Amino acid sequence: MELSKFLTDNQKGICAQWTDAIIKTYPDEGAKFFSGSSNQFANPVGHTFRSNIEKIFMTLLRGGDVAECSTDLDGILRIRAVQGFAPSVALSFLPALKEIVRRELAKTGRVQEMDETLHDWNVRVDRLTMHGFDLYMACREVLWKQKANQLYNRTHKLLEKANLLKDEEVAG
Amino acid sequence: MSDLPRPEELFASIDYTPPKADWMDVPAVIKPGRYCYAANPESVKYVGLPNAHKWNPLDDDWGLPENWQEIIFNGLRERLHKFRSFKIFMDICVRCGACADKCHFFIGSGDPKNMPVLRAELLRSVYRGEFTTFGKILGRFVGGRKLTAEVLKEWWYYFFQCSECRRCSVFCPYGIDTAEVTMIGRELLNLLGLNIDWIATPVANCYRTGNHLGIQPHALFDMIDFFCDDIEDITGIRPEPNFNQKGADILFITPSGDVFADPGTYTCMGYLMLFEYLKREYGLSVTWSTYASEGGNFGFFTSHETMKRLNSKMYMEADRLGVKWILGGECGHMWRVIHQYMDTLNGPDFQSSRMETPVNPITGTVFKNAASTKMVHIAEFTADLIKHGKLNLNKKRNANVHLTWHDSCNPARGMGLLDEPRFVAKSVVEKFTDMPEGTIREQTFCCGGGAGLNAGENDELRMMGGLPRANAVKYVHEKYGVNMLGCVCAIDRAVLPNSMAYWVPEVSVCGLHELVANALVFPGEKERETDLRGEDLPGEDE
To answer: What chain A residue is nearest to B223 in terms of C-alpha separation?
Structure first.
């Protein structure tokens, strides 16, 4: 049995566990809510986690480049980046996929047999994790830029009002 | 390869498991990004509020007076007696959970103490434990607890994580208004000097100079004059607004944010152009005031008494100038104060006898809904003008705008202003698409920064709280190409641009009257090349 067939056959269960790896980082009541309603407007966080996890998994499964996961991964990490998690916790669900797959595979007793392909799969998950780190940092950069711009604009306005700027600086 | 460490071993040092305990046993951990800085004691002192002192929410010692529990108990007792609604809200909740998943902060964060039922329970549990016989005897068994310093800190943290938007109250089968529980919670905290500075200093500014930003009369005049310069450059028409004009028919009051911060400034230019148009075409007599220069009322987020004091200046100024009625700008919570609290704060007895039930002098429409407050929302006023064909509008000037409408919480839920802004918007833009049901009108999602929570330091909270709104905007952007989010609230215009920049960067934010002014055609105006933002107008064939 090839690993890809195993992953395809067990896609539903693996995605559910992978989503759960995100959900379990929230307090019980929050986790229950995120796992509940599938309405994308009433439960945007839970909906994004579930649907994007499935899409990312499908992309990995068909051998696509991790960059193809950008939009879906960004959707999840954009949420995680503002929820007060330490970066390691915010991204912890990504490497968790390796353990989930290994655990499921172990149930079939064929881990050793697929050691080589499992290694390749793990490398792909590692790449996804690193890509996720870039996306997460880009989100945080937006927030810090907003803070910096706010301070810059406030100072600029005060200087402008006090006529302490040259014309070209006023225009800028 | 089998020698490689397993993933769970590699990440064993990362603790990502939240505490599994009853909510009463999970202490509040005050996190940067989710709280606002403490009030400047000078601001607290300025309006005579008690226990002004310097303190830091991150410190263990908050500098509370020795008898702080007695102060809270007396304050709570007084309010249970004074506000029948509050007493009922404390007693009748059956914890059905209908409100639990309706708060934007809970939807975005998953923090259970942001569930409205639990946020109210923070206070209700103390009421039960300290004020009811069952609670005193059975304590935690009946959901009661004692008031400790930790509980007080939890109150502070979470009552300043509620934007008082009242979405939860729409779903409560008993009609419990959790925003009013938050209001009382904040009043009690104010008895100990525990306000946040983003509320306390605007309150002091407003009390002193008439507006939250502390803009002095000459500076307000200069700023509006600066807008008139820009309008003249764009249209060739120079507005000549009146200030503090005695004998004017109408006093216009708008939030000071419109004068100070983009994109509200474009909305302010819109008001100026509309009034100039109406003056030239129909002789409308409107005056601005440099004293009543604030529509917003951050007293609303402090205490009923402070709200009353700040509200009174609008009517004192109306009396001083001798106007017939007040026209209010695109503000949010100002309208909840006017519509829901005015009559018992500074009711008709407080108003000048010269004030009348508002009548649009151009159309003759009587605004019976404003018979008591004598105050009309500018969206109603403009909708009435358009309905009667009194404005010459060219939608093509907004042809590059595909608009969706954010129902600002207070005008929408607080006064039912749902269709008037849409009617005006659809009259001035060619492309309009509403967001999905459940995210607009009475069920609209808050921007995340209402009730004084727009301080720079709690941006993370705002981003979480703004997620449900942004999520709906993203949907209409991706599905229909929406590129502009309209609203009638100055806080929205301050909060949503950053929210959009993070969640849906392709969508901008505007006020209603910016779009009206872009479309408004003055007789004899020069051919416009740009909109009010100085951006090229779309071609006529676009």
So the answer is: A161
